[in-house]
Amino acid sequence: MSNSEEDFNFAYLDEQTKRMIRRALIKAICIPGYQVPFASREMPMPYGWGTGGVQVTAACLQETDVLKVIDQGSDDTTNAVSIRKFFERVAGVKTTENTGKASVIQTRHRIPEQVLSEDQILVYQVPIPEPLRFLEPRETETRVMHALEEYGLMHVKLYEDISINGEISTAYAYPVKVNDRYIMDPSPTPKFDNPKMNFCPAIQLFGAGREQRIYAVPPYTKVISLDFEDYPFEASRAEKTCEICGATNTYLDEVVIDDKGTRMFSCSDSDYCNSRKS
Amino acid sequence: MEQILKAKAIDKKFGSVYACDNLSIELYTGEVVGIVGESGSGKSTLLNCLSGSLVPDGGNITYLDRDNNWLDLLSLPEPRKRNLLRTEWAFVHQNPRDGLRMAVSAGGNIGERLMAIGYRNYSQIRAEATEWIEKVEIDAIRLDDKPSIFSGGMQQRLQIAKNLITKPRLIFMDEPTGGLDVSVQARLLDLIRSLVRELGLSVIIVTHDLAVARFMANRLIVMKNGKIVETGLTDQVLDDPQHSYTQLLVSSILKV
Description:
The structure holds 2 protein chains of 2 kinds. By secondary structure, chain A is α/β, with parallel strands linked by helices. Chain A has 8 helices and 12 strands. A 7-stranded mixed β-sheet of chain A has the order 1-9-8-5-4-2-3. Chain A starts with a helix and ends with a helix. Chain B is an alpha/beta fold. Chain B folds into 2 domains: 3-88 and 168-255, Rossmann fold (3-Layer(aba) Sandwich); 100-167. In chain B, the strands form 2 sheets. A 6-stranded mixed β-sheet of chain B has the order 6-7-8-3-9-10, with helices on both faces. Classes of the chains: A alpha/beta, B alpha/beta.
């Protein structure tokens, strides 16, 4: 990859595009939870692979940054590997699997178990940024609802959950209220991760490439999961122990390990699991 | 009795056609006003202008809210207007599909307005929804069914429950019994009438069915080509029509 500098601008996107994305990011940081439209570019990967997150990461990266990419908590799944390789090639930045050593972490569907710090940026890949989408299909209407803080409908979804399943069965993309104002879709992270967003010291940026939206949660911002008084929010996890590292407080993956349907539970955050094992 | 809604000189044009031509109408508390007329006479346009879903080209509309303030509806800020629509007003559509969320259960539909005004206790919402679904004569075991599997009459009753749960003061109805067979229609009208009396609601009801108007309305407004041609007490207008169009309308009712 010695000739990457001639083939690409640093981090693939041209400077004007990065400037446009940074402007959207600044606006998003200023209005926590508000979806800022941006002119999403075609990226050399399909929609659904994290084109929004990749653009946000590209706009944030500097040559001194250390990048970590995770997919469902793991550093070695397809999506994580391909995006990490992409930035190694087009930005030449250092990459790591160690959560503590990374300055920028791009994630799909998880927040690392290790508590993040003030000098880190967490970039989420978002498929559908609009939390009200499946309740109110008109984007014109949902934008008015956000503007006027008309969020009764979001509770109708939770009401439906309870009336059908006896509990709030939404397990991922669990809606949150940011800074007492905007309702936000935390991307399809498990609701186990929702409390980690509240007063998180790191900057949290959300990029939705196909939907052309960027939103953000600044450091130390209140992020509250919606619930009912008599059915409070619960950060649920499988009531099991990680069979690799023995952790009892992490989010677990259930993995089928042979043809007979034997299963094992292990931490979905591979770096956290490895660090405990060694 | 005091006024609750006043509209003066409402104009609404579609292209060069006047759908509402200099219309003035007043509504008193606890009163049911029927607007009748043929298709295309501007009934629904007038209703949409009054309820804020259309902006008239001219005129002014004022409404007396719960706290006894006269609000100028045409200059009212959007958040306040939408708040009125959710709390003090209700709109019953001709097609229940326009007023209901078909993918959400009956209970969710009824509870939506409560959640919109800040109710956050599931059991309480559930209890009120149960109370209201029974009030509109739907069996409470249907509370978790989707309205898409309800019959037309049940959907319409559900729409009424959904609208009345926040105890509105003013209800707009656009052909609430359109498309229902006569026996269902009769029961629905009976239900609406008793709820209106019980809760002391003010109602503007648009219909082309004079029998519905006779049954429901205290006062009638007859419209033709965007103009009011006759107005008066229902019995007076229907039994002794003065304007030639009203006479035609009354004489064309089919007798069984």
